[in-house]
Design goal:
Layout (H helix, E strand, L loop, with lengths): L1 E6 L2 E7 L9 H15 L5 E8 L1 H12 L7 E5 L18 H8 L17 E8 H10 L12 H16 L7 H14 L6
Parallel strand pairs: 2-3, 3-5
Antiparallel strand pairs: 1-2, 4-5
């Protein structure tokens, strides 16, 4: 079932797959995502989709898109170019790999894609295994540090913010990027990331 929520200029579509436990309401999930989009300076109006699913679907997506076996807790699929967001530590700028690839390409400059009237651009998609969020929270493998026991809703909130920040170009591959991203997660969640 999919429900759309328009918050502060963003339409956030929350899809809950059949049989997936509800650990928080759709509107609560959308509010968390909207807070992350605001903190990251996401353009608006725009849309973003969140799919709350299980380990099996995340394992399929992980294999198909990243070449990794097994499930993971959250995957993000950004669609907007890095320049759609304010620069931040670790973001791709004109000196980054995307710019280098674009500069290396021969041919005409890119033609902007024009959307139909009254259509919002789509920022991307986030897929979260609620099954994994519940397990991580109850087994003491949750939080930013991976060693926190807390409620499944707290873990899901963290994964929603984490996924939304990835859509907005944030990453944690290098220690300085990770520190900046984790600090922003804490700010969005009001310090409750353990």
């Amino acid at each position: 079932m999919t429900r759309g929520h328009v918050l502060d200029g963003w339409r956030i579509d929350i899809t809950v797959r059949p049989g997936v436990p509800r650990v928080m309401s759709g509107i609560a999930a959308a509010r968390v995502v909207a807070a992350a989009l605001a903190a990251a300076g996401a353009p608006k109006p725009a849309t973003l989709s969140v799919i709350l699913t299980d380990d099996a679907e995340l394992a399929e997506l992980n294999e198909a898109h990243l070449g990794h076996e097994g499930p993971t807790d959250v995957l993000s699929f950004p669609l907007a170019p890095p320049g759609a967001y304010p620069p931040h530590l670790g973001s791709e700028t004109r000196d980054g790999p995307v710019a280098a690839a674009a500069d290396a390409m021969a041919g005409a400059p890119p033609v902007p894609f024009v959307l139909p009237p009254r259509t919002r651009p789509h920022l991307g998609d986030i897929a979260i295994s609620v099954e994994r969020a519940i397990a991580q929270a109850s087994d003491g493998r949750g939080g930013q540090t991976g060693d926190v026991r807390w409620s499944a809703s707290q873990e899901l909130r963290l994964l929603l913010v984490h996924g939304a920040l990835h859509v907005c170009g944030w990453d944690h591959a290098e220690p300085p990027e990770e520190a900046a991203m984790r600090a922003l997660e804490r700010r969005v969640l009001g310090g409750s990331t353990a």
